[in-house]
Every structure is written in C-alpha cells, then in structure tokens.
Amino acid sequence: MNSDSDLQIAGDILAVQHLLQPAKEHPSTVAEFAGLARSIAADRSQWAHLVEYDATTRWYHRLRTGPGYEVWLLSWVPGQGTGLHDHGDSSGVLTVLEGELTERTEKGTRVLASGAQRVFAPGYAHDVVNDALEPAVSLHVYYPGLTDMPMHGDRCSAPEAQDVVAA
Ligand SMILES: [Fe+2]
C-alpha cells in the first residue's frame, strides 16, 4: 500500500462490488463481436473436436448462443460453397479458423486465409467457396441470429448453393 496516499483500501477489493466495473454479459459492438470470434478462434479446445467434414453438404454446428446472437462452426471440403446470398436482417463476423476460403462479391474476389475476419452489415451479399485443395473451417457470429439467408440470382458456385445454412 502506498503510505504517501490518503486513500487506502483495507481488505479485499473484490468484496467491494459497487466499486468495480460490471462485467459485460455479452458483446454489443462490432469490435466486441469480432473479439468474441477471435477469442473462440484462439481456443481450439472450444471447437476443434467438433469439426466434421461432409462431402455431400457443408457441415455446420451451432456452437453457442447468447442474447440475440448465434455462433456457428462450419466446415468446407474443397469445392463446397454457398452461392451468392445475404443474411437478411443479420450482421455478421466471418472468421477463418483453418484452411482458406474465397469470398466473391460484386466488388471483386478476396482470398481469406486462416485468421482472416470479415465483418458485414445486414444486406451484404457474398458467395463463399473453398477453392483450395485442403478442407477449411470457419466461425460465423450473427447478430441477431440468422433466420433468413436469401439466395441471389443464379451465380452459384457449388451444388450446395440452395442450402439455407449459415455462411
Ligand atoms: Fe454469408
């Protein structure tokens, strides 16, 4: 304790709850949702054992739900993709956990390597595909939870294009 200060706290500071910042119960900003995705990505014990690869359809698993948001884990074998779609009223954060995904939008094509993140607002349209030769795994946070994934036109990149699953 600093003896030059007039202010001294006796006892356990953690017992004085009203002096502490309340812990956030759930993310509420873009940065916090991106941070949530990064923290899950960094802790493989939360997701690695759950990943499955399915050659017949993109595999997906709802990893977590919170107040108004959902976190989905997806796997992509080479060639699997979504087709061009948006996410209805949901915003989202896409994070590549393993492998590499290619995102196509009306503005161009972007290769997303492991660790890459894309944040998108409601109405954002993209086509996501695994154009690589190795499987890929990705994490998707949606706020609010994904209830609609409208497909756009006939720009489909894979037979799974009519799937209405998270992406
Ligand atoms: Fe998507």
UniProtKB/TrEMBL annotation:
What SUPFAM superfamilies would the database entry show? RmlC-like cupins (SSF51182)
A Pfam family reported for this protein in Swiss-Prot or TrEMBL: CDO_I
InterPro entries for this protein:
CDO_1, RmlC-like_jellyroll, RmlC_Cupin_sf
Task: Cite the entry's keywords alphabetically.
Answer: Dioxygenase, Iron, Metal-binding, Oxidoreductase
Q: Which GO terms describe its molecular function?
A: dioxygenase activity
Oxidoreductase as a keyword? yes
Q: Which CDD domains match?
A: cupin_CDO
Question: Does Iron count among this protein's keywords?
Answer: yes
- Which protein family is it in? Belongs to the cysteine dioxygenase family.
| Record's protein name | Cysteine dioxygenase family protein
